[in-house]
Hints:
- It comes from Atopostipes suicloacalis DSM 15692.
- This is DUF951 domain-containing protein.
- The chain is about 10% helix and about 40% strand.
- It starts with 10 loop residues before the first strand and ends with a strand.
- It has a 5-stranded antiparallel sheet with strand order 4-3-2-1-5, with helices on one face.
- The protein has one helix at about 50-55; strands at about 10-15, 25-30, 35-40, 45-50, 55-60.
- By secondary structure, the chain is mainly beta.
- A hairpin with a 5-residue loop joins strand 3 (about 35-40) and strand 4 (about 45-50).
Amino acid sequence: MTKSTYDLQDVVEMKKPHACGENNWEIIRMGADIRIKCLGCGQLVLMPRREFNRKYKKVLKSSEN
């Protein structure tokens, strides 16, 4: 199993903005599904890892820092 480029508690930028206009999200839970929290309005979204891998753009803030 390869290590992903993102991890729990990382802040990631998505390709498309959320309805509130923000496109920065914090990763809350990881597994087969990934739960992310919008940093603009606080809404939680659960999506399959495969879909998340397609939709995320880059890691803005790593939890290691």
